[in-house]
Amino acid sequence: MPEKLPLYLQIKELLLRELGAGKWLQGERLPAEAVLAEQLGVAVGTLRKALAGLEDDGMLERRQGSGTYVAASQAGQAIYHFFRLENLNGKTGIPQADVVSLERMRHEPTAQYMQLPVTQLFWRVRRHRLLDTVVVAIEDVMLPVQRAPELQLEQLHESLYLHYREQLGFWIAHVVDAVTVGAMPDWGNTALGLSVGEACGMVQRQSFDQYGEIAEFSLLWFNPQRARYMARWA
User: Fold this and answer.
1) Tens place of pLDDT for every residue, the chain, 234 residues?
2) Contact call for residues 125 and 106 (beta carbons, < 8 A)
3) Closest Cα to residue 170, out of 155, 148, 149?
4) At what angle do helices 7-20 and 44-56 cross, to 10 degrees?
5) pTM score, whole prediction
6) Where exactly are the structural domains of the chain?
7) 85-229, what's its fold?
């Protein structure tokens, strides 16, 4: 099975997403550790490990005898930095992913979209996307095989972008999303609580590497009764 993120790293990712959403502003003090741990439903030790990681990344500042503050200058980026779904109540939630299948295949529409030969081979990764353990979306990710000549299901990390960075030697620098209304495909509909063909949210994404080249193409379908697409700019 694909490797899961440890709990402390899940909490770190959640806090990063909430910082990015503006829940706490630069220079603002976070709640006391005991209070924040209770709010997140984790042990204080787990929270402290997450906070330490954010401090190492330059996102937070620990002030002896005063508390933990949002750093004035922030350089860190979440593993799920480009994951734009959040809970309907406005809480970002802890993102997770479950890989459903991995298949090596030709896919002419994706090849044309990525301006590649129609004979191009792709890895198709199908995943469930979750927030706080609830499936809110399903996703088809198409990765050209030259990016990863050999790929096995058990080698994949829960975060594909982390896998790209640590195992494949490239990283996703920016994405272009087209958000529209789509029809539920004939896979994953049961987990998502929708019927095949039912209207749902759909995100068509191009992901670009550090050199500005398109690295993957993906389609994501989400249940608008479970999550919403949200993007914020500063």
Assistant:
1) 666 789 999 999 888 878 866 678 778 899 999 999 999 999 999 999 999 999 988 889 998 888 999 887 555 556 777 889 999 987 888 888 999 999 999 999 999 989 999 999 999 999 999 998 999 999 999 999 999 999 998 888 888 988 898 899 998 888 999 999 999 999 999 999 999 999 999 999 999 998 999 999 999 999 999 999 988 665
2) no
3) 148
4) 60
5) 0.75
6) 7-70, 85-229
7) Chorismate lyase (3.40.1410)
